[in-house]
Amino acid sequence: QVQLVESGGGLVQAGGSLRLSCAANGRTFSAYVMAWFRQAPGKERQFVATINQSGNALSYGDAVRGRFTISRDNAKNTGYLQMSNLKPEDTAVYYCAAAGRFSRRVEEYDYWGRGTQVTVSS
């Protein structure tokens, strides 16, 4: 089992950047695929990006590809989401999640953080 805690959210102007972090407890972080999802008010949770256990396989959602970069540091039990050229439509609560298999589907992820708010002003 792994517990996840997100940080790094905040308010930023359009065109700006933020880096989110996902700190995992326990010694088994490196055994899990890690992903980021987001959820805006009144909308379904949306896939943002995922990275496999070793960090050599990545996948991005269409809305963020080319602007966001997912990474992880297994030695620090931490995952990251670097967000650049932010747009107002990126405003959402961002969640870190962990799973045993590489997937873009919400239902494949067993462990979730509580989320961090990202607000992009126009």
In a few lines, what is going on in this structure?
The chain is mostly beta strands and 122 residues long. The protein has strands at residues 4-7, 10-13, 18-24, 33-39, 46-51, 58-60, 68-73, 78-83, 92-99, 111-112, 116-121.
Summarize the helices and strands and which ones pair or pack:
Layout: E1 4-7, E2 10-13, E3 18-24, E4 33-39, E5 46-51, E6 58-60, E7 68-73, E8 78-83, E9 92-99, E10 111-112, E11 116-121
Parallel strand pairs: 2-11
Antiparallel strand pairs: 1-3, 3-8, 4-5, 4-9, 5-6, 7-8, 9-10, 9-11
Amount of beta strand: over 45%
Count of extended strands:
11
Helix content bin: under 10%
Q: Rg to the nearest angstrom?
A: 13 Å
Q: How many H/I helical runs?
A: 0
Uncertain ranges? none
The run of helices and strands is EEEEEEEEEEE
First-to-last CA distance: 40 Å
The biggest beta sheet, please?
7 strands, mixed
Mean pLDDT: 96
Derived from helix and strand composition plus strand pairing, the structural class reads mainly beta
Shape annotation? globular
Folded structure, characterized:
- With 122 residues, this protein is mostly beta strands.
- The chain is 0% helix and 48% strand.
- It has no helices and eleven strands.
- It has strands at residues 4-7, 10-13, 18-24, 33-39, 46-51, 58-60, 68-73, 78-83, 92-99, 111-112, 116-121.
- Strands 2, 4, 5, 6, 9, 10 and 11 form a seven-stranded mixed sheet that branches.
- It is globular and about 40 Å long.
